[in-house]
Amino acid sequence: MPKADPVLVHDLLLREQENPKFAPFYMVEVFTKPGTNSQAKRDLIIKKIGMIPAIYDKGTHYVANHRLTSEMLDEDVLEVTGEYTGGIGGWGASHEHREHRHRYEQYEDNYIAAQ
Question: By CB atoms within 10 Å of each CB, which of 5, 38, 72, 86 scores lowest?
Fold first, then answer.
């Protein structure tokens, strides 16, 4: 899962440990390279998760609310991020594509400041 947001991975793994038979709902955002065939990517997402993604940023940013498992995070993309929603109802895109290292450092800084 090298391209998945470490915060997302950590949250998902904790939820999978708590209840391994239940895949939790997340709002998942996938970022791809410019020039990606957005129709083919959309069709692949629909086939894989059964949900229609919203597509942003000229076909490089895909967002869908769905049940997520750790196996789904191993994708050939630039970045995967998301947030736990708890159910099918969720919200739209909320992330910008950035390097994971920077996102993790920001999360770590916020965690330390809260202590």
Answer: 86
Which residue's structure tokens are 């904790």? 14
CA distances from 1 to 62, 70, 83, 84, 110 (A): 18, 8, 16, 18, 24
| 41-56 pLDDT, tens digit each | 999 999 988 989 999 8
Helix (H) or strand (E) holding 46: helix 38-49
Nearest to 32 by CA among 65, 6, 55: 55
How far apart CA 44 and CA 7 sit, in angstroms, is: 25
Q: Determine the average pLDDT of the residues in 53-71.
A: 88
Mention every residue, 6+ apart, whose C-beta is less than 8 A from residue 81.
4, 5, 7, 8, 28, 29, 31, 95, 103
Encoding tokens for residue 19?
A: 């209840």
Write the single-letter amino acid at 52: I
